[in-house]
Structures are given as C-alpha cells and as structure tokens.
Amino acid sequence: MKRFVFALVALLGVAPQAQQAVPEIPFDSVPNFLKLPADLNLGEASGVAVNSKGDVAVFTRSNSAGGPAYAATASQILLFDKTGKFLREVGKGLYAWSYAHAIRFDKEDNLWAIDKGSDMIVRINPEGHVTMVFGRKKEASDDAEPWKRVTPPLAPINGQFRQPTDVAWDTDGNIYISDGYINARVAKFTKDGDWVASIGEPGGGKLGNLNTPHTISYDAKGFIYVGDRGNRRIQVIDPKTNTFVREIKIDAPVPADAQPWMGAKPDVARLLAADAPPGAATMAPGAPWAICVTPPNAQGQQFIYSSDAFPGRVYKLSLDGKLLGMLGKSGHQAKQFGWIHEIACPSENEIYVAELLNWRVQKLMLKPAATKSTAAGQ
Length: 378
Description:
The structure is a single chain. This protein has 378 residues and is mainly beta. The chain is built from two helices and 28 strands. Strand 13 (185-189) and strand 14 (195-199) form a beta hairpin. The longest helix has 17 residues, at 2-18. The two termini are 32 Å apart.
C-alpha cells in the first residue's frame, strides 16, 4: 500500500510539469515593410541585420542571372533605412559573393557577411568598403567544383572554412565563426584577426559535439550561443576557457494540425529516435535554425529568440534556457514563416526574420502583455 501511495504521489508530482503552460505571444507583422525598387526582387532571404541607426541589411540569394542554375552566383546585400526605404546595394560584385548565408552588424556598425559558397567571411565598414577578410575560396584557375565531402570529414585547417554559417563576438572583441556544414566547429580569432582556437568537433550527445552549427550569437557577458541545429540544441561557450559549458533544448507542444511549408508532415518520433541518422533532428521541432540575443533592457535582462523549420515557430527564452513564449507557424501568409534562416532582435519586442522559402523579410512587433497559454502535451 505504501508503495502505491508513493507511486501515486510521484505521478501527481510530475503531471503538472507535463502540462506546463507555454505562452503564445501575440504579434503583428508590419505590412510591406521593405520598399523595394520596381525592378528589384529578393531571392531566398538568408540573412538580416539591424545597425545602431535602425538600418536593415538583407543578405539575399538573388542576382543569380550570371551563371547556370546549378552553380549561379547568389549573394547580394541590400540596405534599407529604419522605415524600410531602399538605400543602396552594399558590396556589389564582391569577389567573395557566391552563396549567401548570414550577416551581422558589430558594435561599430561594421557589416559582416558570411558566404557559405566561397567559404569566406568579409567585414565591410559603414562606408561600404571591405576592411577584413577571413577564409579563401577556390581559385578560378583550379577545378571549379565544390569541396568533396568524405566520411568521416577531413580535419579542419586553421584559418580556413568549409561552408561557414555565422559570426559573433565576446566582450574583448574576439571573433567566433561557426564553421559549419562540414567542419562542425567554431573558429575563434582575436579582434585583430589572429588565430586562437578551434572549438568543438563533429558528433552528437556530449557537450562540444556539433552537427551543423548553423547560427551563433552572444550575450553582454561574452558567452557565445551556438545553434547546434543537427543535434536540436543550443550550446554555450565560455570565452574564458574556450569550452562548451551547457546546453539549451526547446521542447514545446506541436499542434495536431501543424503542417510543414512543403513536403510530408515529418515523423518527429523517428527524427528523434536513438537510431536516427546524424543530423536528422534538423527538421524536428525546436531545432535552432536561427538565434539572436537581445540587448539588455532597462532591467538588464536579455532574451534568446530561436526559430525552427517545423512547425515553423519563433521561441523566446531566458538566457538560462527557460521557454518564455512562442509565436507563428509555417505558411505563406503574413505572420507565417517559411524556414526562418536568420533573426535580428534589436529589442525584446521588435524582431526581424529572414525567410528562405517565402523570399522575404518580416518585421515583427510583439505584444507580450497580452500572452495566452497553451498547455504542453495537449
């Protein structure tokens, strides 16, 4: 009898947690925020960043008429002011442009472009000129073909990249480049561009193992947040030790009627099974395709925003990983998302999302005071 009572108490103790409410954050999408010239369209919007003046830069896989469909140049940075008015193209015809992945502004309003196709990272000053370069693409005089993928991957080479994805900085200005689809590590440099360390290695499970570190951000204390997409988690680097110290996982109920933007509805249980192939979790709920960390608010608080491909939501978290709310779903309409590839969050309640599949950037205005809750497990 005692054993039954203890078991009942234990069951009742965990039941409320299984039904933990996850707030749904009401929000609006600013209609037609970006005012494109009549003769200009975005391609896949892979990156978005906002500088200290509120200017919005968009990294788009467009401008691709100059080559064949299977290997066209697809990188273009377009700059808009805070009202969405088009200002100019940045870095037009740049040697590094091949296949756009992500962009970030640093605290000096330098714009950093990460080009997955050329394996290069370029810093561009506010005047539009290149001031620092990382990586080197294959020369035109060599065989014009991608790097060959082998299993297991070849060891990374200091100062070189294989399909890099994003960039972040700590409080000392050290540079962290997520690298990326093949090398599965984070490359660290000093603020002057000198090599420091390779952090992480391919794999899953234990801290420091990475499968497609796809996105990276940082907080006011200099901790680096790495979106370990293929392992469906965010890992945190301590800049003082160059080691991964903890992980954050996003678990929230998926509506029964949730649909992907394209294709069949994924078998989530299979994607997360112990015998699933490496990287299968990329398409599972909560996998971090894009993350950003907000600046400190008046109370000194910062928040993480993260997005997944299915069911296509944006999640708001505290820095310690508590899920505070979520918004949106997959779709083609305003306030719906098609594979958010980068998020810019200049403040807690104003965020910008760059979508691959819908070929657009949305400016979202959040209304957290009016949140409603969804019970986990329902």
